[in-house]
Amino acid sequence: MKVTAIIQARMTSSRLPGKILMEVLGKPLLQLMIERVQQAKCIDSVVLATTTNKEDDPTEELGKSMGVEVFRGSEDDVLDRFYRAADKFGGEHIMRLTGDCPLIDPDFLDALADFYFEGGYDYAINCLEPTLPDGLDAEIISMQTLREVHEKAVRAPHKEHVTLYVRDNADDFKIGSWKHTEDYSSMRWTVDNREDFELVKNIIEGVTHVTPDFRLQDMLDYIHQHPNLAEINAHIKRNEGLAKSLEEESANA
Fold first, then answer.
1. Paired residues of 8 in beta bridges
2. Which backbone phi and psi does 67 adopt, to 5 degrees?
3. What's the N-to-C CA distance of the chain in angstroms?
């Protein structure tokens, strides 16, 4: 069974504006990510869900130049943007990805999809109990479940973080938590800050000339050979954006 991958991406990141189009080896990070997502066997099509802001005109141009569908919607109501992108271009099963993960591993997207279908889940996630490096995160949700979330979610954090409503109402859904046999969750390979970019840039440049079609083990081997690299962004906490939105909701309550 095939899956539609929807990648959320926007230029107006608060911590590192324009990060998705920052280049490594002559390619924007978002292009590198899309190319890796397209390698996953489970992915039937890729959709880029960006905002209606003028700043995201280049985001749309990049998506179209790569032959992927592009949907433009609300910047703040990310759930609505994601849902409408899925409703217009998706099928029965939707994989959610964020555009700041250029090191995403297609093999683990396939592993998550297999887990999701074999378990008959409404929603499956590989970072509920993190074992992969931060930056290899992925989720799959059925279109039926996504439609229910879109209809029922009203809290600001549920609008900003697409699948948080499902996790906050776990008794109402069949949720699957995929875990790797090894724990690499202390590693941070997402791009939210300048330090993140420097690390990811170093990894891509270091492994590509040896293994252009690199995977998790290739990256782990490179980090092992250059142990000081992990210190570049070791001070940054995982899921800072979610923590911030929950704090803001509490402060405004």
1. 49, 98
2. 80, 20
3. 43
Read off the pLDDT of residues 60-82 as tens digits, 9 standing for 90 and up: 999 999 999 999 999 999 999 99
Domain ranges in the chain are 3-252
Give the largest Cα separation in the chain, rounded.
53
**pTM (predicted TM-score):** 0.93
CB-side neighbour CA atoms (13 Å) of 126:
31
Cβ proximity of 71 and 49 under 8 Å: yes
Distance CA(19)–CA(7), nearest Å, equals: 14
How many Å apart are CA 87 and CA 63, to the nearest integer? 18
Instruction: Give the residue among 200, 179, 202 at the shortest CA–CA distance from 191.
Output: 200
Contact 47, 89 (CB under 8 A): yes
CATH entry, 3-252, from 3.40.50.1980, 3.30.565.10, 3.90.550.10, 3.90.320.10: 3.90.550.10
- Pairwise CA distance, residues 25 & 17, whole Å: 20
Candidates 131, 160, 140, 162; CA nearest to 238 is 131
| CA angle centred on 224, ends 223 and 230, rounded to 5° | 45
Tokens of 164: 């948080």
Q: Where are the beta strands (DSSP E) in 74-122?
A: 93-98
Using one digit for the tens of pLDDT, what is the confidence trace for 90-132? 999 999 999 999 999 999 999 999 999 999 999 999 999 999 9
Label residue 120 left, alpha or beta by phi (over 0 means left) and psi (-120 to 50 means alpha): left
